[in-house]
Amino acid sequence: MSSDAGNEDFEDIEPANYPQFARYYRRPTLVNAVALLKALGIHVPYSSFETLKRKRTPPSSAARRGGGGATEAFELHAAADFLHDLKTDSRRIRGTLIQDILPAHAPPAFLKAVKKLGSRAIPPQEFTWKMSKHLAGVFGLSEKLFKTKTAREKRAADGALYEIVTSWMTPVETTIVLDGVLYGPDLTTPFETAMEMRTLTMYAFLMILIDAYAPPSKNTADAAGTAVAVKQLKLLTGVFQTADISKYNTFMVSWIRHLMTDTRYVDLSGCVVLEYLSLCDTPVPYDPTVVVEEDALVVDGRRIPFSLPVNRIRKALSKMDKPVDILRAYAKYVYVGYPKSFLLEILDSYTDLSDAERQDPVIKNLLATLVKINAFRDAYKADVAIRRGAVYITVDRLAQMYYALRAREQKAAHRGIWLNPRGPNEFFAMMYEQKLDYSISDEPSL
């Protein structure tokens, strides 16, 4: 999503100018969470209720009807997700990959729109935002986006968030999957990167959502509301959560401790727990050609290890000069846990191939395998959430779209929300909703 003029992303700011990051990092309390959001100019959840009698709007009871073409939908989503994860503004790389990985069944209007986007010199975030808008139309989904610029927008966002948190607090047990959020800053060099600032902002926002939540019975405007019944908030963690991000445990323990002790209205003492899951708990992927083993993925019959020494791979590739030789060599070393920056290096070589070289069976298979690995990495946390009936919170727009598609296919309750802290004065929330029955062959008007 493009920023308003004059607003900065986390990449553009100096952490030292916001000492609230350091304070919240050292002591992740509710008071420090509020102070951090205020310093960033980000709307504090529920704050619009302080000057307005809270009115509860019942969640929509409209049926979420399933649509056809599920397998093709997931295949198209996997290709779009791969384009998103390149995170490059190179028109050359985008253009080549758009041509080679989008499936043949992609609606022509969508393909035309994405090719046009790929030819423009726009930053990666804008490319993803605009592509996802087109993709949602293909899938019959609409974006319910909550902004927090005006007083009206803040009240609407607070009302929606209040209803969401109420749905967490009314069951006896609620399980939560935080996708891309369970990332604790490095203890030795905290809050020095945009990712760490974004993560601390997410922690602060979530803490306020939970700890400042006032059940309906606390509201004079709605004293007959549903009572809080939750006895346990369970945060799922483990191998499925940490394949991409590894440093979070120390900060997470402190955050949970304060989450339980700093609540204003709901007693969460001893209620928040971490549950560790192994790969054995990972659901069967949507793609029947992908099989999860204890230490590897099997993709189209080939066993792909979860990890390999990156330095050894770089050393092997450094001996190659021709792009075609680099790609053929990498095909021998492909693994699940590659850093996505490394992927961009490989695909930079791919775009230097001739048309004939891109038809090399080894290289075509490598590209198809990378798309499937990337789809698994980005989808399995959503699959875990659906299997467990968990709340799914993500900072990734396309992951939220996958969750909506998968929940529809599985006829599961939709409990997902996308939260996106971009920087000072920039925070959005969004949910995908079903518009109507659709077929993957339907073409949206673009």
Overview of this structure, please?
The chain is α/β, with parallel strands linked by helices. Among the domains are: 24-53 and 142-277 and 391-434, no CATH class; 289-388, no CATH class. It is built from 16 helices and 10 strands. Residues 1-6, 52-69, 182-190, 219-225, 242-247 and 438-446 have low confidence and may be disordered.
Characteristic key phrases:
16 helices; 446 residues; disordered C terminus; globular; seven-stranded mixed sheet; alpha/beta; disordered N terminus
Number of strands: 10
- Level of helix content? 40-55%
The major beta sheet can be summarized as:
7 strands, mixed
Could you name the ranges where pLDDT drops below 50 across 5 or more consecutive residues?
1-6, 52-69, 182-190, 219-225, 242-247, 438-446
The neighbouring-strand order within the major sheet is 1-10-9-8-2-3-4
Order of helices and strands: HHHHHHEHEHEHHEEEEHHHHHEHEE
Overall pLDDT score: 82
- Give the overall shape, derived from the CA principal axes: globular
User: Which structural class do the helices and strands define?
Assistant: alpha/beta
Q: Which range does the strand content fall in?
A: 5-15%
Task: Please work out how many helical segments DSSP would assign.
Answer: 16
Tell me the radius of gyration.
22 Å
Distance between the termini: 18 Å
